Amino acid sequence: MIGQMNRRLLVGCAVLLLVPATSDAQNTADELARGFDLAYNLDHEAAVETLEAAIDADPNNPATHRSLAAVTWMRILFLRGTMTVDDYLSSVTPRKVDMPDPPVDLASIFTTHSARAIELSEALVRTSSDDPEAHYQLGASLGLTASYMATVEGKTLEALRPAKQAYDSHERVLELDPLRLDAGLVVGTYRYLVSTLPLPVRLMARMVGFGAGKEEALRLIREAAAHDGETRTEAQFGLVLIYNRERKYGAAQRVLRDLKRRYPRNRLIWLESAATALRDERPGLAASNLRVGFSRLASDDRVKMFGEEAVWLYKRGATGLLLERDADASTDLQAALERDARLWVTGRTHLELGKLADLAGDRALSRQHYDQARELCDEGRDKRCEDAAKRLRKNVFQRP
Predict the structure, then answer these.
(1) Does the pLDDT value for residue 15 go beyond 80?
(2) Burial code of 340-358, b = ≥16 C-beta within 10 A, e = fewer?
(3) Would 103 be classed as within a structural domain?
(4) How confident is the model at residue 230 (pLDDT cuts 50, 70, 90)?
């Protein structure tokens, strides 16, 4: 359960390392920062080239190996089409049928470099047991491994062990250096996860050593997001997910505005802003973000996320329905069905088409769409969509 919740909340949380301020180490830190800047702008190939060069220049630094592993993990999620908030909110928990195995070469790169990062970090802890930097490096490496196991391999229970070790390592960092705000991201994230679990499971999690407390957890994550350190971006993406889960949509939009400024080539941030606006029932704001996003999508010749076009079209179709632009909404939703897509996207698209059919007075067609939505959303484990389809099949949709 904890590993499963970790999978939902830790996408995007690839952790960099703070390197001692010698000139060579500073060069490494600068290259790692540049590599992640490229990755968060969706320039994945350039990011990999930069990080491979950093490994060649500093092969015994766990930060270089972990950074390449982290960006490789991000590439796998991107190619799978699992890089949106929708994928990690509580209603969507993809089954293996909807999750192809990662490319063999990328899986090998992750395994090799994540293992090397852990090996080097463990050696640092053995030689410097009271050094917060050594514990930070170990916790960051273990946390990345736990996230990969949960999100890519589906090994939620197996991920518990490295997750707990990562938590313990970064709690130790905060004991040794309370000003090391970067370590608050891992500690805060796991505390938040525990706070969201049912009481019996929460008690079990605390018995094995995971702390809890939602407000304290959010404080730690906010501090990491505000701190100009190596986990700032990861913490910001984590906050977008948590704020959406907590229905604090205005707070999520404020974080997204900063991310747009910092990563202008990442068109998916505009998609997330539109999706957040839809959850907040602000279709006008969603439409504004979608206009910018579609223009960026049209002019961007880089590789697209799997199912990305279908998601854009589905979101614009759902927005058009709310804005009473039914003809435009129908065109977008029908186009979404023609694209490759994740199961939950196709299921939700049928749900919106069912609503349009109800508005047009065609109850037989609406029920066909709701039946397809229920089946697809059940297969894609989108409980919210499945429940909505069942409800709408019994009760005609009416525009608010």
Answers:
(1) no
(2) ebbbbbbbbbbbbbbbbbb
(3) yes
(4) confident
One domain, residues 52 and 159: yes
The neighbour count for residue 5, using CB atoms within 10 Å, is: 22
Reported as a single tens digit per residue, the pLDDT across 239-253 is 999 999 999 999 999
Q: How many domains does the chain have?
A: 2
pTM of the model: 0.90
Which among 240, 267, 274 is positioned nearest to 42, based on CA atoms? 267
Beta strands in 158-278 (DSSP E): none
CATH number at residue 111: 1.25.40
CATH of the domain at 338: 1.25.40.10
For 184, the domain range is 2-246
48 within a domain of the structure (yes/no)? yes
Q: Which of 139, 233, 246 is nearest to 183 (CA)?
A: 139
Report residue 349 as tokens: 């698209």
Question: Using one digit for the tens of pLDDT, what is the confidence trace for 344-386?
Answer: 999 999 999 999 999 999 999 999 999 999 999 999 989 999 9
- Together in a domain, 208 and 348: no
298 lies in the same domain as 328 = yes
Torsion of CA 138, 139, 140, 143, to 10 degrees: 120
**What's the length of the chain?**
400
pLDDT-derived band at 202 (thresholds 50, 70, 90) equals low
356 and 227 share one domain? no
Indicate if 224 and 365 belong to the same structural domain: no
- The dihedral over CA atoms of 67, 48, 40, 226, expressed in degrees to the nearest 10, equals 30
Q: What is the pLDDT of residue 195?
A: 84
**Residue 153, Cβ neighbours under 10 Å: how many?**
15
Closest CA to 394 of 350, 353, 358, 346: 358
> Do the domain assignments include residue 72?
yes
Give the DSSP H or E segment for 28. Answer: helix 23-40
